Protein backbone atom coordinates (compact mmCIF):
# COMPACT_ATOMS: atom_id res chain seq x y z
CA UNK A 1 0.00 0.00 0.00
CA UNK A 2 1.29 3.49 -0.84
CA UNK A 3 1.46 6.45 1.44
CA UNK A 4 -1.79 8.07 2.47
CA UNK A 5 -0.08 11.32 3.36
CA UNK A 6 3.11 13.08 2.28
CA UNK A 7 4.41 15.52 4.88
CA UNK A 8 6.63 18.15 3.27
CA UNK A 9 9.14 19.79 5.59
CA UNK A 10 11.40 22.56 4.24
CA UNK A 11 14.48 22.92 6.46
CA UNK A 12 16.68 25.97 6.83
CA UNK A 13 18.77 26.79 9.91
CA UNK A 14 16.50 24.94 12.36
CA UNK A 15 18.76 22.11 13.55
CA UNK A 16 17.97 23.09 17.13
CA UNK A 17 14.27 22.23 16.64
CA UNK A 18 14.50 19.52 13.98
CA UNK A 19 14.63 16.41 16.23
CA UNK A 20 11.48 17.48 18.08
CA UNK A 21 9.75 18.13 14.74
CA UNK A 22 10.73 14.79 13.21
CA UNK A 23 9.97 12.82 16.37
CA UNK A 24 6.48 14.33 16.56
CA UNK A 25 5.78 13.20 12.98
CA UNK A 26 7.24 9.72 13.44
CA UNK A 27 5.12 9.15 16.58
CA UNK A 28 1.87 9.70 14.71
CA UNK A 29 -0.66 6.87 14.76
CA UNK A 30 -1.09 7.07 10.98
CA UNK A 31 1.61 4.73 9.67
CA UNK A 32 1.15 5.15 5.92
CA UNK A 33 3.08 8.41 5.66
CA UNK A 34 6.18 9.66 3.97
CA UNK A 35 8.27 12.58 5.16
CA UNK A 36 9.90 14.63 2.47
CA UNK A 37 12.51 16.82 4.12
CA UNK A 38 14.12 19.46 1.92
CA UNK A 39 17.41 20.81 3.23
CA UNK A 40 17.39 24.24 1.58
CA UNK A 41 21.13 24.89 1.84
CA UNK A 42 20.98 25.15 5.62
CA UNK A 43 24.30 26.36 7.11
CA UNK A 44 23.84 24.45 10.39
CA UNK A 45 23.99 20.67 10.88
CA UNK A 46 20.40 20.10 9.72
CA UNK A 47 21.48 17.86 6.83
CA UNK A 48 23.40 15.61 9.21
CA UNK A 49 20.32 15.29 11.44
CA UNK A 50 18.05 14.57 8.46
CA UNK A 51 20.39 11.89 7.10
CA UNK A 52 20.66 10.24 10.53
CA UNK A 53 16.87 10.03 10.80
CA UNK A 54 16.52 8.80 7.20
CA UNK A 55 18.87 5.89 7.91
CA UNK A 56 16.67 4.90 10.85
CA UNK A 57 13.28 5.23 9.13
CA UNK A 58 12.62 4.40 5.47
CA UNK A 59 9.60 6.76 5.40
CA UNK A 60 11.96 9.74 5.44
CA UNK A 61 13.26 11.07 2.12
CA UNK A 62 15.87 13.82 2.14
CA UNK A 63 16.39 16.31 -0.65
CA UNK A 64 19.54 18.43 -0.37
CA UNK A 65 19.71 21.56 -2.48
CA UNK A 66 21.11 25.06 -2.68
CA UNK A 67 19.13 27.72 -0.89
CA UNK A 68 16.26 29.05 -2.98
CA UNK A 69 13.76 29.87 -0.26
CA UNK A 70 10.87 28.11 1.40
CA UNK A 71 8.52 28.36 -1.61
CA UNK A 72 10.95 26.61 -3.94
CA UNK A 73 11.69 23.99 -1.27
CA UNK A 74 7.97 23.25 -0.85
CA UNK A 75 7.58 22.95 -4.62
CA UNK A 76 10.46 20.45 -4.72
CA UNK A 77 8.68 18.48 -2.00
CA UNK A 78 5.41 18.53 -3.92
CA UNK A 79 7.14 17.16 -7.02
CA UNK A 80 8.70 14.33 -4.99
CA UNK A 81 5.52 13.43 -3.07
CA UNK A 82 3.89 10.05 -3.63
CA UNK A 83 1.09 10.31 -1.07
CA UNK A 84 -2.62 10.54 -1.69
CA UNK A 85 -2.69 13.88 0.16
CA UNK A 86 -0.12 16.54 1.11
CA UNK A 87 0.57 18.21 4.44
CA UNK A 88 3.09 20.94 5.12
CA UNK A 89 5.09 21.26 8.31
CA UNK A 90 7.62 23.85 9.40
CA UNK A 91 10.87 22.39 10.69
CA UNK A 92 10.73 24.47 13.88
CA UNK A 93 7.26 23.19 14.77
CA UNK A 94 5.83 19.89 16.07
CA UNK A 95 2.56 18.01 16.38
CA UNK A 96 1.22 18.28 19.96
CA UNK A 97 -0.25 14.75 20.06
CA UNK A 98 -0.04 11.48 18.14
CA UNK A 99 -3.43 11.69 16.41
CA UNK A 100 -2.97 14.90 14.43
CA UNK A 101 -2.34 13.22 11.07
CA UNK A 102 -4.97 10.50 11.43
CA UNK A 103 -7.56 13.15 12.23
CA UNK A 104 -6.35 15.27 9.33
CA UNK A 105 -6.52 12.30 6.99
Overall pLDDT level: 96
Structural class category: alpha/beta
Strand content bin: 15-25%
Shape: globular
Fraction of residues in helix: 25-40%
**Order of strands in the sheet with most strands:** 3-2-1-4
Order of helices and strands: EHEHEHEH
Query: Which spans have pLDDT < 50 for at least 5 consecutive residues?
Result: none
**What gap, in angstroms, lies between the N and C termini?**
16 Å
Q: Number of helical segments?
A: 4
Number of strands: 4
Question: What's the gyration radius in Å?
Answer: 12 Å
Q: What's the oligomerization state?
A: single chain
Main pleated sheet: 4 strands, parallel
Describe this entry's structure for a reader:
By secondary structure, the protein is of the alpha/beta class. Helices cover 34% and strands 24% of the residues. It has 4 helices and 4 strands; from the N terminus they run E-H-E-H-E-H-E-H. Strands 3-2-1-4 form a 4-stranded parallel sheet, with helices on both faces. Strand 2, helix 2 and strand 3 form a beta-alpha-beta unit. The radius of gyration is 12 Å and the shape is globular. It starts with a strand and ends with a helix. The model has no long low-confidence stretch (mean pLDDT 96).
